[in-house]
Amino acid sequence: MKVKCEYCGKLIDENLTSCPNCGASMPTANRVSSGQPKTIEELQQWYKDHNLPPENITRFFIGKDIKEPKAFGIYKNSSGDFVVYKNKSNGERAVRYQGTDEGYAVNELYQRLKAEIADQKANQSSKAGSKRRKKSKDKMTLLDWLLLPLLLPFISPVLFAIFFLLIVFIIAAFDHSPSKGYYNYDGNDYYYQGSSWYAYDPDTDDWTYASNSSELDSIINDDTDDDYSLSYHEGTQFEDTNWYDSGSSDDSYDWDSDSSWDSGSSWDSGSSWDSWDSGGSDWDSDW
Question: 15, 57, 127, 133: least surrounded by Cβ within 10 Å?
Fold first, then answer.
């Protein structure tokens, strides 16, 4: 596929790092940030790891050529091109990208999905705030006041603390799954987060999905002495990549920050996406 140089206006091959006509650097050569999905398979795994609703709810179809109206998608056609598309509400298709650069194609849909998630978070946060304000205005009924003294013994702070510690002890006794953090196995560094393993590549100083996740699960789960855990990792810190989920709450979400848009841990729970409203998208625009 040919792209236009932003400086001299000539058409050149999309994979070139600089324009052969004027020498200008081509932004198309560095489209993908370190740590984000670069292939259709990685984007599918990213979607799964974030427990997003089914594709028929979000209307984002990864690896599929869907003909239905109101759909975003990416797929590889019979000619070997990667196609990123949007089907409008009237069924008309707008092709965002078609070419051989899979990384660029994946990034186009990834960025659109990121923007959609931010919009969904904003909508749900607004709805939650409205519910909280409504609840704060509700007054206790006479029956509530009469039952309150009967409930006080059951919500004693001491009893609650004992119950909580008992639950923690039971979970710790039977749960041998790895904790979030760094691990070293067979000379390689890994990071465990949200039931997924990520591997560090010292040659590129970058992180990606681990191909031996099942092997790591079977070994680390039985590591009662923490022989594989690491307190420090040399090289790019996993916490500085786009893979990292800080686990902050929705209330602390920074709506203006590109780096923390998916940091809210409660947004990674399938149950928190119940009110995803794909009908709120602008289905009449090209993208």
Answer: 133
How many percent of the chain have pLDDT more than 70?
66
Q: Is the pLDDT of residue 257 over 50?
A: no
Q: Over 90: is that where the pLDDT of 211 sits?
A: no
Supply the DSSP string of the chain, one letter for each residue: -EEE-TTT--EEETT-SB-TTT-PBPGGGG-SPTTS--SHHHHHHHHHHTTPPPHHHH-EEET----SSSEEEEEE-TTS-EEEEEE-TTS-EEEEEEES-HHHHHHHHHHHHHHHHHHHHHHHHHHHHHHHHHHHHPPPPHHHHHHHHHHGGGG-HHHHHHHHHHHHHHHHHH--PPPSEEEEETTEEEEEETTEEEEEETTTTEEEE-TTHHHHHHHHTT-TT-SSEES---SS-GGGSTT----B-GGG--TT-STTTT-BGGGGSGGGGTT--GGGS-TTS--
